[in-house]
Every structure is written in structure tokens, then in C-alpha cells.
Design a protein that fits this description.
Elements lengths: L4 H22 L2 H8 L3 H32 L6 H31 L12 H61 L4 H17 L1 H21 L5 E2 H19 L3 E6 L8 E2 L3 H11 L9 E7 L4 E7 L12 H11 L7 E4 L3 E7 L3
Parallel strand pairs: 2-4
Antiparallel strand pairs: 1-3, 4-5, 5-7, 6-7
Helix pairs in contact: 1-3, 1-5, 3-4, 3-5, 4-5, 5-6, 5-7, 6-7, 7-8
Length: 357
């Protein structure tokens, strides 16, 4: 997260003024009396070097923050991050002080101005410690600003997710009623609402994506279920959202392989055809992670869409109503002479439906 220029300038000014205030308290009054007698040029050089030092402290702090944010995030290892940041901050300040002393020596010509009273060891240590503490304070301020910014961003995103989830849950409830009117399987609606409620509690991002795909599926059903034909491209786009729901609801118990020739995508089929075929495969077969149900969806050279699944019969077989497949057959009967073909052997169940130009 980038910090604004105004905040940086405020931190630099805060550090610049604070450094003089601290050293004024630490160093004896006689030192400042002598300091006031120095030439203006010398005082200006001191102020400029101190300003440079303050800018450097901020730059070092921001650099350390950026590097450590990638390697040791605050949310993952807070105590380790604190110790590491303090260590690097102190080392960085000390190294820069040495560099600044060298620059000072080059510009002024002496390490310590002879016109100023000599400082004792105690005063020197206090001054050094105060400089390090100011550097750590700047680091704390920049880190606090970073964490606060992240918290605000995360809070806003969480609020957006909650609003979206609430909107989509409301939409899902409305779609559920419409789905019943359209004679869709109500169990599918209830199962997805149950999964959605769990995901929102466990993984907000995945829950948000789930509601988005959930809404896409039922929006498609409401918009297109009464149409006679729709392009295979649109049906596959719907299928992508539908399979997202299936995969997150059933885990790795089913595998869907799609291989459609690009030249077939603008051909037409009755809407919701693929959903009915997949529902049929899932309804009458087991879905186990160690032995998943494999469903292949592909096109052939006869301008047909083929949906084939291996047979994994349920221990307690569901009684077939035949409504889904009959629906497709009846719809094709109104469209022309070509009819769906159903093939079944000991290993596979295959449905072939014509693609219409």
C-alpha cells in the first residue's frame, strides 16, 4: 500500500522537530550557547544534514517494511516480525549515521567542531540512543499506518463481500421459488444453499465466488429455460458456472472432461440440455474420491454433442422417472427429424444430441 506524500512530509517534519527537541533536553545548556555562536552557514549545513537524516530514516523504514511484508507478514508471525524489524531498523540507522558522519567530515573538514564543547561519554550515548528511539518511533508510525490501511481495506472488502453475499442469498431465495415453478429439481437448490451457508462462514472469498456462480446458473435458467434454442457457446458458459457449484459441493468425487471443437460453438441446442445430462449422471451413479465418476463432454464429426459417463451404480438404486431425458427427446421432436441417441453397455452410459445449424 502506497503512503501519500502529505503523510511522508508530516513524518519527516515530526522527526526533524522531535530530534532537535530531544537533543536540546539531553545535551547541556552550555553546548547550545556555543552552538548559537556558530556561523549561519555551519548551522544551515547542520540543519540540512539533519533533514537528510530524517528523510533517510523514513526511507529506510519504508524499505524495511516493504521487504519484510513479503517475507514475514505481520498477520503470520507478529513476534518474529517485530524483532526482525527492530533489528534491521537499528542496523540501518547506525550504518547511515556512519555514512552521514563521513559526509559531514568531507563538507565541514572536521569530525567535531572545535568551537563546541566536548561531549562526555554519557551525553554521547544518550544522543545515540535518542536517535535510535526516534528511528524506531518513525518505524512504528509507518507500520501503524500500513496496518491501519490494510485493516480499512480488508474491512471494506469484507463489507462488500457481505453485501454481495446478502444480495446473492436474496437472489438465490427468489430463484429457488422460480426454479420450483419451472419444475427444476428442488433438492439441487437446497443443497446449494446449504453449501453456500457453510462456505460464507468458512471461506468468505470462496463463498462470494460460489454465490456469483450460483446466481449465474439460476439467472441463466430463468432467462433461457423457455427459449427453443441457444448457442453451444452460451450453454458451455453456463456449464462452467454449474460445474463450479458441483465441484465445490461434491469435492473430488466427480471429474468432468470437456473437449468441444471450436467450429461447433456457434451451433445450437435446446437450453439446459447439459445440466439435465449431468444431473442424470450424478443421480444414478456413485461419486467417490478414490473412484470418481468421470463424465466426458465432446463433439464428434457428425455434428453431435456427446455426453458419456462411466457406470458406477448406486448400492440402492434410485427409481428413474425418465422426466429429464424425455424432456430433451420431446424438445428435439419439435425441432426436426434428427433425434437424440441413448447408448448403454456394461461400462458406459452415452447420450448423443444433434447440434443444429
Amino acid at each position: 500500500m502506497k503512503r501519500s506524500t502529505s503523510k511522508n512530509l508530516m513524518l519527516i517534519a515530526f522527526t526533524f522537530i522531535g530530534s532537535y527537541a530531544t537533543t536540546y533536553v539531553i545535551l547541556p545548556h552550555s553546548y547550545w550557547q556555543k552552538y548559537a555562536d556558530l556561523p549561519v552557514s555551519r548551522i544551515v549545513i547542520d540543519c540540512l544534514l539533519n533533514l537528510l537524516f530524517c528523510v533517510a530514516i523514513l526511507a529506510i523504514s519504508m524499505l524495511i517494511d516493504r521487504r519484510l511484508n513479503k517475507r514475514i507478514p505481520w498477520m503470520t508471525h507478529p513476534f518474529r516480525r517485530l524483532l526482525t524489524q527492530v533489528f534491521y531498523q537499528i542496523i540501518g540507522v547506525l550504518l547511515f549515521m556512519i555514512l552521514l558522519s563521513i559526509v559531514y567530515f568531507i563538507i565541514v573538514g572536521v569530525a567535531v567542531d572545535p568551537r563546541l564543547p566536548a561531549l562526555g561519554l554519557r551525553d554521547g550515548v544518550y544522543a545515540l540512543v535518542s536517535i535510535i528511539l526516534w528511528a524506531l518511533m518513525v518505524s512504528a508510525l509507518t507500520t501503524g499506518d500500513y496496518l491501519l490501511g490494510n485493516w480499512k481495506t480488508a474491512t471494506m472488502k469484507a463489507a462488500e463481500f457481505e453485501i454481495k453475499a446478502a444480495q446473492n442469498k436474496q437472489l438465490a431465495a427468489e430463484i429457488e421459488l422460480e426454479a420450483l415453478k419451472l419444475q427444476l429439481d428442488p433438492h439441487f437448490v437446497f443443497n446449494n444453499l446449504s453449501v453456500l451457508a457453510e462456505l460464507i462462514l468458512k471461506d468468505q472469498q470462496l463463498g462470494y465466488e460460489y454465490t456469483e456462480n450460483f446466481a449465474k446458473v439460476y439467472r441463466y435458467l430463468l432467462t433461457n429455460s423457455k427459449k427453443t434454442l441457444i448457442s453451444l457457446r452460451e450453454e458451455l458458459r453456463f456449464l462452467d458456472a454449474y460445474l463450479f457449484l458441483i465441484n465445490n459441493r461434491m469435492g473430488e468425487g466427480s471429474i468432468f472432461r470437456i473437449d468441444i471443437d471450436e467450429s461447433k460453438l456457434d451451433m445450437l441446442i435446446p437450453p439446459v440440455t447439459l445440466q439435465l445430462f449431468i444431473e442424470n449422471a450424478l443421480k444414478y451413479n456413485r461419486t467417490e474420491e478414490d473412484n470418481p465418476l468421470v463424465v466426458n463432454i465432446y463433439s464428434n464429426d457428425e455434428d453431435e454433442l456427446v455426453v458419456s459417463n462411466i457406470l458406477l451404480p448406486l448400492i440402492k438404486e434410485n427409481k428413474s422417472t425418465g422426466i429429464g431425458l424425455k424432456n430433451i427427446i420431446d424438445r428435439y421432436a419439435l425441432l426436426g427429424d434428427r433425434k437424440p441417441v441413448i447408448e448403454k453397455d456394461d461400462k458406459n452410459f452415452t447420450i448423443k444430441v444433434p447440434l443444429i445449424k
